[in-house]
């Protein structure tokens, strides 16, 4: 049986995780990334819930522990800087998810750890500065059918399986769904932006969040701290700000900085210091700003034939706290379902790929999307605007903290009870190619 030939588009979290699992069944893998280098940027990620046993199953616990960010907890403060509630870091076993998880890691560190898993495998080819132009595929009833891919440089190649791990704005998803399908990104009405600033003595190592009162748009400003020299500033908005919309659409960094600075001007607490740094400190050039969206795809559309969506391209929820966990778990379930079916269909990888992709959606969709759809709760709980609304939020948070309750990282019991499936095909002894 020829090895399964796979193209993975996107070298973030879920792409390299899938490359690892499929390399364990000896697949011939090409992993492509649009950026010129490993895109090891981004701020803090949390490994939560089943993301924790997942990371251990991948054999990377020691590597992850070596670069953990030790955040002692999360606090809410008012616009004069006074602490209103404090939540210590959570243990992952707990059903009460906290904003600070036991495994906080910088995105770049995790991306690098995942890359290293397959960096030296002959059967995995890593290509940077590479994307695809288009693809077609043979009919689903062709037993040995292929996906015919054209790369951006005009090169053509056939694959048994193509996986879109190219993030929330996935272009591959658009190609797969077709030109007439609606854009599945549902706007939650706001933005999150983050950037680094030089630290000052007194910057807290707790995750610190400050709700700013205002009448037009709801604003939160926060900080997290993973190293001595820098403080990472987060700006979260809810509501419409035309200048910010336009700046985001333009993709112009200077315009984005200006729009955010205008929104937080005179906001209280350390706002003035942070917007000064945002506009003038070189450290803040790492500004990353993205709208809050959920990718809401109709049931049965996570794959089409031999093309499958994975990670944020399939089930993104911006800043929902589970993105990297679900990126890694989704990769495992997809690989496991296909690996289980392959030996049963020795003459046709097509059947295993298509059915495996369907099984992956059936099994994982209820988990990956269980927090979706809560836009009203999101709005009223997370983003109070009035002084009174903020006062209520602080009062609730204080009560919750004193009762040691979680703080609204929705965590239903269906999700909490779910266990990672076992896939013996992925656990076999490995060749060293
Ligand atoms: C630069 C960046 C910073 C982030 N920072 C944070 C953060 O601080 N905190 C947080 O919680 N989450 C952050 N995220 C989101 C988080 O990484 C994801 O929610 C989660 O890890 C799921 O990952 P993913 O691999 O599915 O998608 P992503 O992590 O978005 O990775 C997608 C990858 O595909 C590449 N790509 C996109 N389009 C193409 C294409 N057409 N062809 C080839 N490659 C393509 C992208 O360059 C990227 O490397 C960030 C994402 C990115 C891209
Ligand atoms: C993977 O497939 C490519 C293209 O078909 C082929 O050139 C290469 O030798 C294969 N690699 C391995 C390790 O089988
Ligand atoms: C990326 O690829 C394009 C062609 O596809 C080429 O023109 C460009 O020089 C490449 N950039 C880097 C940094 O390799």
TrEMBL record:
Keywords: FAD, Flavoprotein, Oxidoreductase. Pfam families: FAD_binding_3. Coiled coil: none annotated. Residues 5-175 form the FAD-binding domain. One of its GO terms (molecular function) is FAD binding. Gene3D superfamilies: FAD/NAD(P)-binding domain. It comes from the Eukaryota. InterPro entries: FAD-bd (IPR002938), FAD/NAD-bd_sf (IPR036188), FAD_aromatic-hydroxylase (IPR051704). PANTHER family: MONOOXYGENASE, PUTATIVE (AFU_ORTHOLOGUE AFUA_8G07040)-RELATED, OXIDOREDUCTASE-RELATED. This is FAD/NAD(P)-binding domain-containing protein.
């Amino acid at each position: 049986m020829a090895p399964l030939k796979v193209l993975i588009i996107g070298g973030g979290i879920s792409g390299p995780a899938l490359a690892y699992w499929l390399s364990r069944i000896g697949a011939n893998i090409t992993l492509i990334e649009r950026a010129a280098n490993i895109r090891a940027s981004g701020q803090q990620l949390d490994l939560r819930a089943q993301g924790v046993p997942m990371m251990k199953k991948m054999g990377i616990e020691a590597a992850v522990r070596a670069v953990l960010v030790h955040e002692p907890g999360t606090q809410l403060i008012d616009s004069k800087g006074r602490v209103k509630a404090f939540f210590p870091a959570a243990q992952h076993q707990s059903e009460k998810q906290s904003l600070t998880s036991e495994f906080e890691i910088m995105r770049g560190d995790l991306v690098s750890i995942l890359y290293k898993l397959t960096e030296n495998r002959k059967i995995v080819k890593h290509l940077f500065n590479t994307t695809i132009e288009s693809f077609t595929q043979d009919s689903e009833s062709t037993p040995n059918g292929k996906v015919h891919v054209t790369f951006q440089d005009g090169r053509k190649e056939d694959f048994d399986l193509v996986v879109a791990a190219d993030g929330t704005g996935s272009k591959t998803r658009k190609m797969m769904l077709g030109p007439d399908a609606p854009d599945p990104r549902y706007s939650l009405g706001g933005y999150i932006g983050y950037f680094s600033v030089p630290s000052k003595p007194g910057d807290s190592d707790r995750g610190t969040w400050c709700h700013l009162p205002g009448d037009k748009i709801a604003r939160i400003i926060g900080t997290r701290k993973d190293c001595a020299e820098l403080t990472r500033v987060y700006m979260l908005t809810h509501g419409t700000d035309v200048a910010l919309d336009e700046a985001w659409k333009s993709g112009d960094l200077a315009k984005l900085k200006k729009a955010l600075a205008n929104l937080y001007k005179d906001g209280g607490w350390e706002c003035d210091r942070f917007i000064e740094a945002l506009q003038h400190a070189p450290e803040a050039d790492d500004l990353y700003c993205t709208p809050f969206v959920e990718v809401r795809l109709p049931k049965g559309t996570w794959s089409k034939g031999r093309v499958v969506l994975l990670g944020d391209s399939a089930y993104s929820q911006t800043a929902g706290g589970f993105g990297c966990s679900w990126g890694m778990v989704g990769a495992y379930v997809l690989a496991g379902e296909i690996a289980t079916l392959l030996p049963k269909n020795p003459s046709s990888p097509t059947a295993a790929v298509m059915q495996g992709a369907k099984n992956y959606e059936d099994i994982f969709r209820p988990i990956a999307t269980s927090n979706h759809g809560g836009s009203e709760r999101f709005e009223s709980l997370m983003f109070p605007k009035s002084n009174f609304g903020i006062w209520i939020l602080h009062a609730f948070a204080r009560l919750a903290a004193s009762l040691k309750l979680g703080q609204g990282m929705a965590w239903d019991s269906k999700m909490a009870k779910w266990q990672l499936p076992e896939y013996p095909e992925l656990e076999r002894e490995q060749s060293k190619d």
